[in-house]
Design goal:
mainly beta, 50 strands, 7 helices, 788 residues, globular, 7-stranded antiparallel sheet
């Protein structure tokens, strides 16, 4: 019986997508959610195949869980959990295609090795999700452990050098140079994964408990001495750190270089750095609290086999079913948080720079472009689709900001005479504006002033809403409102004043703004005046905390309906307000609309997605983001929404994003490598064959550039002496460079192959449309095929 209770992934924030006419991929309480079946390839080595289990499928020792067998590797467990929990609303998961095999090295993903076939080939097509554990057999970890419990551990320096090479220049295995882990990950993404799909890499558990916390180490543990244990633990930690760093490097590649694929590393020991996994997660081998699960851990609940006679390098020191189940549960916590191109969702894009970390953002405003500004006092950062960049400080601590373009943001703020005399009971409050023009803030312009009691803070400007550089509305409490016409501010009368403040404001055009000057009422700007009168809201006992309008006939707002607390959504149809839900929702922190079909609201509480249909809210559907902060802001444009939660930022869009938005300008079509004989037509192939008999091929190619005019890639050319014959010649690997140039009608017409070593050469090949009779390559594989 496994020693824990399965739990649901927590840490969700309520982020709600609204739609008057339901958009794609959104379900209501009365309709079944649309689904996409995620295709899944489960590759890897013995830790991915389930080699430590009993009754596995030969010859690869796979725990498939099929045919009545109970042995299940972690990928199968994760699939079962996801299917049982229905962890996502827009996805279903196909059964993993298990190709993991005990003893496999990373290069076996693409190439046959010894008696094992390649785990993936072009004929298998692309998969939406690829999961694996690779790297342990690359450094020979099973042999290392075997030596430690028999004749003594190998040199620490030698093992650490292998781990270093795994992450940097690559290891030579069986006379062949194996690409380093970052290049391997890129190759997987470009060749085997659907554009915008995901790769989940599972790390390795520590085999033996830390001697300083072990239940006993007087006589060693399962054949390990205390010194040997320390070395093996150090190597396993180093291996996980190297693989985790490679995943970070792969994610740092441009979206095009990684096929817009996202990589996730799961450390089953500590869970460090993985969204969705807490350091105290009970499925970890070393949680920060509770029972640890390595050999000789206190409590005797190890999730690994000990030394098994007759299975020294197979089942020994591999996870038991409890261990595989725990790793599967970790994967099932992470996978629901992943983003998919067919299921638009919130995706974390970047953390804010340290310049705003000490003062959480208090304002956010976005415009199509993409462009967003986040403000914390006078400090501001902007984002144009790639990363947050610090802007020059604003001339004052901004109370409101509204952007309509990357070259126009209106900021408003106030100053007070009370600052110089804190004990004063009266004071003068002056309101100012400043404009961001794309490179600098303008000098402040005074547009209003109010003198009164310091106990009445509503006289100052509190927010601003702009629809273009030629129209902005700013409101406060007692001073009323002012309009920006593109060059000057003009005070307008008619807004209800009072101590309720008028802090919520949303404008959709110069002829329509919605404001909340008094509780529980709203008032409308019609282009010439506020009013007439107010729109009373049925039910609320407090003013609206948020108002967002998509048009003059479609607004949304949230307010507290009664003394029980919580907030309720309301909708405005151009005439009156209507309650939109029968149950209270958590206090709403943010609300934004940019069009009649693109709105979002959020609350710092566990919740889910809700949509609007015929004026009614649907039942919440879970949407999970790994963040937790009471600071919550949202700003939507017609193409995306940005959420700011603490110092983390998240993006939602119905377009394919990666880590940066796709702009409206269509990218130029890149020339391809066309090989009629293959046939092959695509960009960035990972292998190119210059002969049909394996005597001249360049493999493991990584491309440093592929542009409209040329391409350059580096790979490995293997020299075959053909002694005693070419089939049995072991081969010697040497670096090679491929240069493509002279594009004509969208295809390169010149290919130069330059190989190194004592038998190196340079071959300059010219394209021929004929299938044979030329020196052009005979075939290629990998990369992005033009037909896909």
């Amino acid at each position: 019986m496994i020693g824990y209770t399965r739990k649901l992934a927590l840490g969700a924030l309520m982020l709600v997508l609204l739609s008057a006419t339901l958009g794609p991929g959104v379900a209501t309480a009365d309709t079944a959610p649309p689904t996409h079946t995620v295709t899944w390839l489960a590759a890897g080595d013995s830790f991915a195949s389930g080699a430590g289990l009993e009754h596995t499928t030969k010859p690869c020792a796979q725990g498939t869980g099929t045919g009545g067998a109970t042995a299940k590797t972690w990928a199968v467990v994760a699939h079962d959990v996801l299917t049982g929990q229905k962890a996502t609303t827009q996805l279903s998961f196909d059964s993993p295609r298990i190709v993991a095999c005990t003893g496999a090295i990373s290069n076996e993903f693409f190439h046959a090795y010894k008696k094992s076939a390649a785990q993936w080939t072009r004929s298998m097509g692309r998969f939406d999700l690829v999961t694996f554990s690779f790297g342990g057999d690359d450094i020979g970890f099973s042999s290392i452990v075997k030596h430690c419990v028999t004749i003594g551990c190998p040199s620490d320096a030698d093992v650490r050098q292998k781990i270093r090479l795994l992450g940097t220049t690559g290891l030579t295995i069986g006379g062949k140079l194996i690409p380093p882990y970052p290049a391997f990950l890129k190759h997987v993404a470009k060749a085997a994964v659907t554009k915008g799909g995901n790769v989940v890499v599972m790390g390795y558990p520590e085999v033996v408990e830390d001697p300083t916390v072990s239940k006993t180490f007087g006589g060693g543990c399962e054949g390990f001495t205390e010194g040997g244990t320390n070395e093996v633990r150090g190597w396993a930690g180093d291996l996980n750190a190297t693989i985790g760093a490679a995943v970070t490097q792969a994610n740092a590649l441009s979206a095009a270089d990684r096929n817009d694929v996202h990589f996730t590393f799961i450390d089953p020991v500590t869970g460090q750095g993985t969204d969705g996994i807490s350091p105290s997660d009970p499925y970890l081998f070393e949680p920060t609290s509770g029972t640890r699960h390595e050999l000789c851990s206190r409590g005797g609940n190890a999730w690994l086999n000990g030394l098994l006679p007759g299975h020294l390098t197979t089942r020994s020191f591999h996870p038991t079913q409890n261990g595989e189940t725990a790793m599967g549960d970790l994967a099932a916590e992470v996978i629901p948080l992943l983003s998919w191109p067919w299921a638009p969702t919130w995706r974390q894009i970047d953390n804010l720079p340290t310049s705003t970390n000490s003062d959480y953002p208090s304002l956010v405003s976005c415009a199509n472009g993409p462009f967003c500004v986040i403000v914390a006092g006078a400090t501001a950062e902007d984002w144009a689709g790639a990363a947050w960049v610090q802007m020059p400080d604003a001339p004052g601590s901004l109370d409101g900001i509204s952007c309509t373009a990357a070259t126009f943001c209106m900021g408003v703020y106030d100053t007070s005479s009370v600052a110089a005399n804190p004990s004063a009971t009266t004071g003068t409050f002056t309101s100012y504006s400043t404009i961001w023009n794309g490179s600098a803030w303008s000098q402040p312009a005074q547009f209003d002033s109010f003198s009164g009691s310091t106990a009445e803070p509503y006289g100052v400007v509190q927010t601003v809403s702009c629809t273009s550089p030629h129209f902005c509305m700013a409101v406060g409490g007692d001073f009323g409102s002012t309009i920006w016409n593109g060059s000057t501010w003009r005070h307008v009368a008619g807004q209800t004043t009072g101590t309720d403040g008028g802090t919520a404001l949303s404008c959709t055009s110069p002829t329509f703004c919605m404001a909340t000057p008094a509780a529980p009422q709203t008032i409308i700007w019609n282009g010439s005046a506020w009013g007439p009168g107010t729109q009373s809201v049925p039910g609320p006992t407090d003013w609206f905390s948020n108002v967002a309008c998509a048009s003059s006939t479609q607004c949304y707002a949230t307010a507290t309906p009664n003394a029980s607390g919580g907030e309720e959504p309301y909708s405005f149809d151009g005439t009156s307000w209507t309650a939109g839900a029968t149950n209270d929702t958590p206090d709403t922190d943010a609300l934004s609309c940019a069009s009649t079909t693109y709105c979002a609201w959020g609350a710092s509480a566990l919740g889910g997605v809700s949509t609007l249909e015929d004026g009614k809210w649907s039942s919440p559907l879970a949407l999970q983001i790994n963040a937790n902060s009471s600071n919550f802001w949202i700003s939507c444009t017609t193409t995306f929404c940005l959420a700011v939660i603490g110092t983390s930022t998240y993006l939602f869009s119905t377009t394919e994003l990666g880590t940066a938005l796709v702009t409206s300008a269509a990218p130029a079509r890149l020339p391809s490598l066309d090989i009629p004989l293959g046939p092959y037509n695509g960009i960035e192939p990972t292998e190119i064959y210059f002969s049909g008999d394996a005597t001249n091929e360049v493999t493991d190619i990584t491309w440093s550039s592929w542009t409209e005019t040329g391409a350059t890639g580096q790979g490995t050319w293997t020299y075959l002496s053909c002694v005693p014959d070419c089939a049995d010649s072991p081969g010697v690997p040497y670096p090679a460079t491929i240069t493509l140039s002279d594009p004509v009608n969208g295809i390169f017409t010149s290919a130069v192959e330059t190989t190194q070593g004592p038998y190196g050469f340079t071959s300059d090949d010219a394209y021929s449309a004929a299938a044979s009779g030329s020196s052009w390559p005979t075939d290629a594989s990998g990369g992005q095929l033009s037909s896909q």
